[in-house]
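Page 37, continued from 36.
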């Protein structure tokens, strides 16, 4: 009976191209070694790899094609084969041949064969190699290599672990010590020298109530990070020397720890290379030499001054490091001892002083523009939570005798000022003639002034009559400004003031302050003029008060014909 089977097996080896129901069944393309290793007393399995037109067959394919699978084991190398005897420890499950567990006697070559009732189709040969468990926690013959770079990160994965259902339960050991980690992988964010060693991963699986251990071992070897060649001296050095002395200066570069690169060091003065030392020259260069220190390789090229001369001072002697892909350089400058480059220091200090003065002048000249720009960028708002209703109280100083001829001043106070400050910058003004109901009393004036953050005084002549209709408003507002300091003033000179002595003393104090803005006729008539910037600067900062760009910057149109 066995001989009949053997003949059938031999014929099947010759019929890998046999067609079954129009399907081309045969061995799958090789994907590397078919050897399988396992430790003694640990589970293992073999897979029957047959393909239908290069597509790996599944169990459903076997059923659809009416194929059955049989496993065979080679008794001796290149010897006869025999069908695998069914036993409890070795189980054929679908396309798999499972060992629960593997033993040394299981070592050998295994074949799978498909049978459709007429012909056999034989799969590729495999081998299972089982060895006794080492006295330690790992066996060197079954150790997988892994290489890392010191300082970099690496993630270790347990190799050849086929049982994925509980992979998160993997336990990791280093050099057979206690459990250092539990999880599907072992991550090192930054490798250090002491991380080298043997890492064993162990997974416990259960089969028919019996627990088995699957172990794999990784040998982690570390290497130093690649160091590129680098010039370390000189960079830019100032060296004090004595005229007439002999001095040797070494240009030094780290050679790196990678493959030996073509490196070259050379000294230059200006565009010309320094000559080699073969005769008595005042300055020359020696040949390159190699030095080893602390396992680091250095390349050195000396620059020799046999007798330092004055013409060699304050000149840049450059050392160039040339590799296969880059050129870097450093420089030395000789300076006579006791005579350092004072001129350079003085020049630097003067330059810094000039810059500071220029910045200070710019801050003074453009302080208004700088402050307004800062407000716009930060959205600063001084009007929040101060319980004030108005941003400014507008006071136009005028006398009874000029009341009828003050159309120009009233146009400024009642039309132009609110048109700009209210409509374009979002301020809220309190104008007595406009906002206080007719028949307002003196107490009403004080009441409204107290509700404002600024007092805008519009001065249109050099004197203020005692009988001026706005005198009480002025005195009340100045009392708030100078005595109680509850409100800040803004004095607008609508017309030039030639002499301030005719004004009340309290008004003279305000006029002498820096809170004065002068109207300069047509020069101030444009909305982007300094006059309006200064008024806005003296007003409280208010968030979201950027001017309407289309009105403010587009056309240089006078705001009034005053």
């Amino acid at each position: 009976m066995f001989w009949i089977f053997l003949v059938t097996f031999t014929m099947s080896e010759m019929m890998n191209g046999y067609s079954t129901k129009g399907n081309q069944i045969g061995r799958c393309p090789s994907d590397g070694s078919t050897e399988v290793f396992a430790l003694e007393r640990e589970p293992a399995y073999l897979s029957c790899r047959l393909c239908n037109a290069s597509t790996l067959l599944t169990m459903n394919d076997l059923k659809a094609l009416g194929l059955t699978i049989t496993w065979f084991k080679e008794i001796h190398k290149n010897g006869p084969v025999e069908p695998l005897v069914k036993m409890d420890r070795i189980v054929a499950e679908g396309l798999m041949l499972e060992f629960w567990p593997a033993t040394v006697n299981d070592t050998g070559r295994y074949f799978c064969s498909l049978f459709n009732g007429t012909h056999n189709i034989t799969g590729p040969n495999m081998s299972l190699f089982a060895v006794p468990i080492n006295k330690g926690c790992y066996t060197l013959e079954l150790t997988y290599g892994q290489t890392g770079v010191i300082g970099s990160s690496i993630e270790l994965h347990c190799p050849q672990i086929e049982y994925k259902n509980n992979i998160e339960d993997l336990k990791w050991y280093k050099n057979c010590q206690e459990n250092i980690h539990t999880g599907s992988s072992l991550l090192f964010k930054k490798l250090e020298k002491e991380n080298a060693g043997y890492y064993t991963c162990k997974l416990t699986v259960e089969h028919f109530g019996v627990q088995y251990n699957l172990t794999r071992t990784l040998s982690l070897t570390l290497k130093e990070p690649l160091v590129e060649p680098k010039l370390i001296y000189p960079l830019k050095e100032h060296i004090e020397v004595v005229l007439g002395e002999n001095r040797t200066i070494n240009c030094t570069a780290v050679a790196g720890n990678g493959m030996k690169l073509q490196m070259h060091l050379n000294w230059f003065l200006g565009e010309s290379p320094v000559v080699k030392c073969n005769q008595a020259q005042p300055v020359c260069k020696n040949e390159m030499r190699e030095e080893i220190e602390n396992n680091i390789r250095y390349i050195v090229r000396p620059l020799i001054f046999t007798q330092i001369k004055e013409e060699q001072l304050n000149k840049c002697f450059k050392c160039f490091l040339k590799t296969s892909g880059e050129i870097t350089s450093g420089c030395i400058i000789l300076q006579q001892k006791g005579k350092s480059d004072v001129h350079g220091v003085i020049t630097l200090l003067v330059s810094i002083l000039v810059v500071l003065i220029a910045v200070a002048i710019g801050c003074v000249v453009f302080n208004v523009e700088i402050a307004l720009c800062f407000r716009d960028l930060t959205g600063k708002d001084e009007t929040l939570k101060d319980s004030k209703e108005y941003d400014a109280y507008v006071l136009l100083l005028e006398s009874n005798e000029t009341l009828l001829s003050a159309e120009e001043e009233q146009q400024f106070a009642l039309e132009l000022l609110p048109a700009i400050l209210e409509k374009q910058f979002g301020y809220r003004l309190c104008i007595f003639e406009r906002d206080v109901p007719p028949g307002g009393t003196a107490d009403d004036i004080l009441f409204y002034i107290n509700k404002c953050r600024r007092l805008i005084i519009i001065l249109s002549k050099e004197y203020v009559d005692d009988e001026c209709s706005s005198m009480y408003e002025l005195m009340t507002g100045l009392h708030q400004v100078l005595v109680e300091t509850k409100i800040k003033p803004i004095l607008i000179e609508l017309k030039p003031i030639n002499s301030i002595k005719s004004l009340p003393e309290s008004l003279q104090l305000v006029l002498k302050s820096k809170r004065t803005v002068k109207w300069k006729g047509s020069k101030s008539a444009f909305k982007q003029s300094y006059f309006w910037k200064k008024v806005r600067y003296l007003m409280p900062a208010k968030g979201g008060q950027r001017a309407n760009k289309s009105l403010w910057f587009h056309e240089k149109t006078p705001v009034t014909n005053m």
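The chain is about 20% helix and 35% strand. Flag for discussion at group meeting. Residues 267 and 319 are 4 Å apart (CA to CA).
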